[in-house]
Amino acid sequence: MNIVRAELKKLDISLDQITTILLTHTDSDHTGAIGLFSNPKIYMNRDEEQMINGQTAKMGPFKNHWQYGPYILFNSNDTLTVDGLKIKIIHIPGHTPGSVCFVIGRDYLVTGDNMIVTDGKAGPFLDKFNMNTAQQIESLKVLPDLKLFKYILTAHYGITRN
Predict the structure, then answer these.
(1) Per-residue pLDDT tens digits for 66-106
(2) Alpha-carbon distance 4 to 50, whole Å?
(3) Which residue in 18, 19, 125, 143 has the fewest CB atoms around it within 10 Å?
(4) Please, are residues 129 and 113 in contact by the beta-carbon 8 Å criterion?
(5) How far apart are CA 114 and CA 108, in angstroms?
(6) Closest residue by Cα to residue 30 from 135, 84, 102
(7) Contact 130/58 with Cβ under 8 angstroms?
(8) 27-43: string of b/e by CB count within 10 Å (b at 16+)?
(9) Which domain does 149 fall in, by range?
(10) What is the rounded distance in angstroms from the CA atom of residue 97 to the CA atom of residue 16?
(11) Could you read off the pLDDT of 121-141 as tens digits, one per residue?
C-alpha cells in the first residue's frame, strides 16, 4: 500500500481525490489498496461478483477476501460515464469469469490481466494465473484493432504507445 501512496504522491494526487475505482477483476493484487481510499465508488462486472461472494474460488494467493464495502455492478458491454468520461466495458472472460477491459474515450484501452501486448498484438495473460486460458484467447477476439488506441495500459506489462 505504501507503493500506491508513493506513486500517487509523485503524480500530485491525494488519496481523497480518488472517488471511483473500476475493477478489471478482483484478484487481491488488484484490490489490495482499495482500503487506502475514503468511500470510493467501486465498480465491477456482474460476472465477477462470484469471485468475492464465495461462489467461485481462485487458487493460492489470489483468493479473494472482500472487505471493501459496497460496490456497483455493471453488465458486460455497458458504457459508464464517470466524471464526464465515457467508458466502454468489454467482457474478456478467462483470467476470471468477469474480467473486463475498459475503453476510455477513443485513446485508451485498459486491459488488467486480460492480455499481454507483444509486437502490437494481443496475446493471453500467463496461463498459470488464468482460470481458463482457452476462453481468454477466444475472448480477446472481440477487442477492436489495437492500432485504434494511442495507449494500451496493461496491469503487469506496462504501457504500449501506438
Answers:
(1) 889 899 999 999 999 999 999 999 999 999 999 999 999 98
(2) 27
(3) 19
(4) yes
(5) 15
(6) 102
(7) no
(8) beebbebbeebeebebb
(9) 2-161
(10) 31
(11) 778 998 999 999 999 999 999
- Pick from 105, 79, 101, 98: which is nearest to 90 by CA? 101
Domain CATH number, residue 67: 3.60.15.10
Q: What residue has cell string 464526464?
A: 84
Name the H helices within 12-106: 28-31
Total structural domains within the chain: 1
Q: Which residue is it, cell 458491454?
A: 77
Residue carrying C-alpha cell 467461485: 56
Amino acid, single-letter form, for residue 119: D
pTM (two decimals):
0.91
The span from the CA of 51 to the CA of 41, in Å, is 19
